[in-house]
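Suppose you are handed a protein chain with no further information: no name, no annotation, nothing but its sequence. What can you learn? This example shows the usual starting point.
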Amino acid sequence: MIDEESIDNGNEPNDFSDTDVNDQLAEVGLRDALSYFQKNVGKTIDLYTGQVGDEGWHALKTIPNSWKNAGPTDNGSKNFIAAGPGLGGGEDDKEVLLDKIPDVTPLRATGLKMLIGKTVLAIVYDGDVSINYSPLNGSLQGENLGLVAFDVVEVTERTDGSTSSLPRVTIKIRSVDSALSASLVLFANAPVPQSSSEPFDIAPPATVPAAQFVPAP
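A reasonable first move is to predict its three-dimensional structure. Written in structure tokens, the prediction is:
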């Protein structure tokens, strides 16, 4: 998941317009491709990724059984992306299955660098993804701007932000439809922060562990 700390109208360094990021369409369960990304497949751009304690990128590492049971398929990840009942869609409470999701992991410098060379498919939130620690869990409730897909090209320390700014990430935009046609996987060994302030991981280290991925159930 990516939230307003990374992609939003007016955000540096891209100054996206409202229509670039589907802001005029924002609603719970929106799964359209963001307009700018849909029109610029193959383009390379930079994204900021938030600050320590207010991260812009988050990795799903656990899929609750309730997501698998929600439908319309027997795969919880696909149901989330499809905004199935309680996962952004349905007739009743569209968000009933999206609170206190275990192991929603905010990504800081090390985790971001581990994604270099990988393809990311993300649901973009119009607001913040709220994270709690001890135990780690996140609320995935709130209005969505849609979907984006991209390859991570480079991760560099920011020298033009605040003292807690997380890295600048260079991405190459990909087709959402192409990403959706691939097998979905989870970032299994995304580093788990101890708290909202520790580790103060703002500079990508010279070497990082290889990213490990598991099929998304």
